[in-house]
Specification:
CATH topology of the largest domain: outer membrane lipoprotein receptor (LolB), chain A
Number of helices: 5
CATH architecture of the largest domain: Clam
Structural class: alpha+beta
Number of domains: 2
Order of helices and strands: HHEEEEEEHHEEEEEEEEEEEEEHE
Distance between the termini: 114 Å
């Protein structure tokens, strides 16, 4: 009898544990369904807005990998928003040590030899996030999709796809932190589905407070040289009345560096996501060799053209396929104003 009582008690305990386990599983499933529903309620456009906001407004600290083709590097990042001003420190973790320090609109790159290079903020900003700051979701050249819930670096996230509609641009896949919206991973693929660039956090945390010393560069106090990165200027050797035109522009791309003015030899185009620039120069020593070279998603294509027995060089640089860059370069012609 005593043995039977033990068996009954034991079976009751097993039954209770099974009941609790079943309830826990049901709660987990219900929670997952609720999370999935919450994710599906927000549109892809709203997720992109949340991503842009998180990059600026959240405090975060972590390490990430960035690869372009066969080149890759790892970096650490510390970011905070204080008194409505962004402060950030980026450190190169492999290869030559380098640091990027941002305080508001001032961005400085600190090298091991104590050189300090001042950068334009637009050239420094997170490349992937910056791409989407001017993205127009209603345009017809990309399909914007919410691919649902997943996980990255032990955090729930949502995956978005921005798929190119033709062969003249690339597709993007983004993994955003569900809680904050911060970009945790991105992959840029060409028309054949091959990865060209990849960004991915390997560790991320969101502390409530980030101390001042966490944002101080290692070489602080030993800065001896300041160098400003030169900006591209037009070639004043061209006739004042000469204008350059791109006779073929991929669908969806528009000129974004102002009106075409006489003498200007630089043209910049964007579809709101991808960008490319056209440089026209006279034939000279030291020019880039003809043909295409590519690192990750960025291509540089140079071609020598002729107009009325006069030769000129055209270079197209941007995040577009090499064949598209060639078609653009071949279409650049001079036009004299009357």
């Amino acid at each position: 009898m005593r043995c039977l009582n033990y068996k009954i008690t034991y079976l009751k305990e097993i039954g209770q544990r099974l009941f609790i386990s079943v309830i826990s599983c049901l709660l987990f499933v219900i929670s997952g369904v609720a999370n999935a529903e919450a994710i599906s309620e927000r549109s892809p456009e709203q997720w992109l807005e949340k991503m842009q906001s998180a990059t600026v407004n959240e405090n975060y600290r972590g390490t990430f990998m960035f690869s372009r083709g066969k080149m890759s590097s790892s970096m650490s990042i510390v970011h905070r928003l204080q008194n409505n001003e962004e402060q950030e420190l980026l450190k190169q973790l492999d290869g030559e040590m380098g640091e990027i320090v941002r305080n508001g609109t001032q961005v400085m790159c600190v090298f091991p030899d104590n050189r300090v290079v001042q950068l334009e903020q637009s050239k420094y900003s997170n490349k992937v996030v910056q791409l989407f700051s001017n993205f127009m979701p209603d345009q017809k050249n990309y399909r914007l999709k919410n691919l649902g819930a997943c996980r990255q670096v032990e955090r729930p996230c949502v995956k978005l796809a921005i798929e190119a509609e033709d062969e003249h641009r690339y597709s993007y896949f983004l993994w955003l932190d569900k809680q904050t919206g911060l970009l945790l991973k991105s992959v840029l693929k060409n028309h054949e589905g091959i990865d060209l660039e990849r960004f991915q956090y390997t560790h991320i945390e969101f502390p409530d407070v980030i101390d001042d010393q966490d944002l101080e560069p290692m070489n602080a106090g030993s800065l001896i040289e300041h160098v400003m990165i030169p900006t591209v200027k037009k070639d004043i050797r061209w006739p004042n009345k000469m204008m350059w035109k791109s006779m073929w522009i991929p669908s969806g791309f528009m000129r974004v560096n102002g009106e075409n003015k006489p003498g200007s030899n630089v043209m910049v185009y964007s579809d709101g996501l991808a960008n490319y620039s056209i440089f026209v120069e006279k034939i000279k020593e030291g020019m880039m060799p003809e043909g295409a070279s590519q690192v990750g998603a960025t291509v540089a294509y140079t071609q020598v053209l002729q107009y009325n027995s006069h030769e000129y060089g055209v270079t197209v640089i941007g995040e577009i396929p090499a064949m598209t860059a060639m078609l653009v370069a071949e279409s650049v012609k001079p036009e004299m104003q009357k």
